[in-house]
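Figure 2 data, in text form.
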Amino acid sequence: MNVSHPHDPLADRLSQCYTGAVHDVMRARGLSQFVLPPQITPLESNMRTAGQAFTIRGRMDRDVSAHDSLVQWTKMLSVARPGSVVVCQPNDSTIAHMGELSAETFMLRGVRGYVVDGGCRDTSMIARLGFPVWRRYDTPSDVVGQWVPDGMDEPITIGNVTIHAGDYVLGDRDGVVILPKADTAEIIDEAERVMHTENQVRKAILDGVDPHEAYLKYGKF
């Protein structure tokens, strides 16, 4: 499925980075608490996403009707910004907060990916679709009649990381990092320089340079 995203130069550049390089840059800048819990993993190891966060918060509601829960869920699908990465704190660890039809809807609307501190279902179909999803667990149980979103584009917390709407998200096989919006451009600049230096170190080692000497020369390993 060919889907275009709104032009976002920072997201496009960030998508060419990897979480390890970005992590090292942010650590060197004195930042902390920007890596989501390691239990949040991609459906497929080759999935990648990068973009500005559109945040969702939700809660269990055993009294909501099936109809009303789906009204609120589909409203959330409608308002998520094209070009964003949707990041959800469901405040639940029992049901799925993403499924195939929702993933396809997001994809068609130009959403770049979905990260949830919760569950997913229809995982094989989403994997075939190619929509990038990071989640804690898989389960066939869904939101109908028992879960509702109750906040969007507001700060949320996953693990020890607070995510604000508009922060940048980078996800790959190793996990998910959150970049503060105000620092994103400088972090990407530095990450690109880090990756260039790593390429020089790699070439030197492949050419027979001792790894210790390569580190001392380039200051990176």
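Caption note: The chain has a mean pLDDT of 93.
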